[in-house]
Amino acid sequence: MLDIKLLRDQADHVRQRLATRGAGDEKFVDEVLALDDQRRKAVKEVEDLKAERNRSSKEIGALMGQKKLAEAEAAKVRVREIGDKITALDKQVAEVEASRDAILMRLPNLPHASVALGKDAADNPTIRTWGEKPTHAFKPKNHVELCQSLKLIDFERGTKLSGSGFLLYTGWGAKLERALISFLLDLHSTEHAYHEVSPPYIVGEHCMVGVGQFPKFRDQAYAVQEGNDASTMGKLYLLPTAEAPVANIHRDELLAESQLPVRYVAYSPCFRAEAGAAGLGTRGMIRVHQFDKVELIKIVKPEDGYAELETLVGNAEKVLQLLGLHYKVINLCTGDMGFASAKTYDIEVWAPGQNQYLEVSSCSNCEDFQSRRMNLRYKRESDGQNILPHILNGSGTALARLFVALVETHQQADGSILIPEPLQPYLKAERIA
RNA sequence: GGAGAGAUGGCUGAGUGGUUUAAGGCGCACGCCUGGAAAGCGUGAGUAGGCUAAUACCCUACCUGGGGUUCGAAUCCCUAUCUCUCCGCCA
To answer: Which of A224, A327, A385, A416 could form a disulfide with A349 if both were Cys (CB 3.0 to 4.6 A apart)?
Structure first.
């Protein structure tokens, strides 16, 4: 959520930055400001009335103490009228405030000044590349063929169980998935000093609101219901990313400055309805309803936010370097950025069998956009002020696509997969054949 | 799932309709004291909104959330959530 004070003080700036996203949200700024103005006028009025009621009620108490009952009764009648006005005005304030916040909650974050202007993915500048596209002395197979020939995934039976977009990992496929998860958790918790956590996979609505998934992207989530009790429907949701629970760990807390920076790493499966998304229904692992991911979350002082974003991307890149996978880092342009983010780097890994780059990580600084939504602050030591920290998230990394890049890159002419050396202790094998 | 008891500030803990401006204690910050500490003594300190040049004053709200009764609610009523105890079920 954007700071209402920023909209009041720098409306033109907010409009201009929102416009760079190309979604037309800038037109809502005036609407928010009008409602805000309306709210403040009503608040002033009702608070003055409340002050008067408080004074009068005290006087009534004193009159009753002195047994001046007739005077007290007369005063009660007067104050009751004030009370009726207050009731009506309170309701009005609540309504106006709800209208204002409903719009505010749907406004995306402002892109950071360093983000490239652009319309869509075609305008995303490449920041750097690592390694090169591997050259195979044979025509590389795609992951679907490899998974079938090595029996890593049973696509048909996955679909039989849960419909299209769900995977049944089998044998070495299941072991490889498990090995990757352990490898990633160990790398980030040991080498990169993230604190490992394992969150619930079902979260309350307030967590989804906190990270900015709701209210705007409600249709992308799987809602949960307890048995046939329809009243429980939508109180809880399957998480679309571990960001939802982990970024909310300290919601409604006032942290000490000495607690920062907070860095968490968590594994979770991710569930996405992918309503209306292209690529679902086709066989493969590129776009599915459930995939595994190891997520990195940071809560840091605002002045450290952007330096921390750079190291976050570096931590995710390290995964691909250790696994010997060619990738490029791109910066999402203003028109392609996610709702809550002020600046995002995507990491795209090369998949030879697909002959394309696949997005395996998205690293963002959401600045104080989420901390304001979830009421997370820290007390600054120098002046005792309560400050909204920056919250960052990054995939470190998503697994289904990492799996694809790994098997396609390290496939051999005989159809086997060579396992990169850092992963061998986890899989307890050097080759899948 | 059933029965009962609870939720008060950073922590603890009093308060059952109007001297509560939420006592007392612990902890915290500052000062006095000290060679330096501890102890002791003193002072101060919450969050959000409104009004403001102001992080000054003043006003409003906040005792888990929501709703109600009342001139007036931490206190009475309803409700949701969570915690604890016991019973049942269960990996």
So the answer is: A327
Q: What is the DSSP string of A400-422?
A: HHHHHHHHHHSB-TTS-EEPPGG
Query: What total number of domains does chain A contain?
Result: 2
Q: How many Å does it take to go from CA A13 to C1' B51?
A: 26
Protein residue closest to B49, using CA and C1': A43
The amino acid at A250: H
Structure confidence at residue A55 (pLDDT): 86
Does any domain span residue A15? yes
Residues engaging strand B (CB under 7 angstroms): A 40, 43-44, 47-48, 50-51, 53-58, 60-61, 64, 76, 79-80, 83, 94, 254, 377, 379, 384, 386
Residues A164 and A190 grouped into a single domain: yes
* Mean of all residue pLDDT scores within chain A: 92
Structural domain ending residue among the three candidates A106, A139, A155: A106
What nucleotide is nearest A63 when CA is compared to C1'?
B18
Q: Is A132 helix (H, G, I), strand (E, B) or coil?
A: coil
- Residue A239 to residue A253: CA distance in whole angstroms: 22
DSSP 3-state assignment of A58? Answer: helix
Tokens coding A95: 């309504």
User: Worst-scoring range by mean pLDDT, A49-58, A223-232, A399-408?
Assistant: A223-232
Rounded, the Å distance between the CA of A69 and C1' of B30 is: 50
Q: In the structure, what pLDDT confidence band is assigned to residue A347 with cuts at 50, 70 and 90?
A: very high
Residues A190 and A318 both lie in one domain: yes
- Domain with A230 in it: 121-432
pLDDT of A69 above 90? no
Distance A236 CA to B1 C1' (A): 21
A158 plus A30 within the same structural domain: no
Nucleotide nearest to A235 (CA to C1'): B81
Nucleotide B10, nearest residue via CA and C1': A254
pLDDT in tens, A206-238: 899 989 998 888 888 999 887 777 778 888 899
CATH of the domain at A58: 1.10.287.40
Confidence check on the interface: ipTM exceeds 0.85, yes or no:
no
* A256: β partners: A379
- pLDDT for A284 equals 86
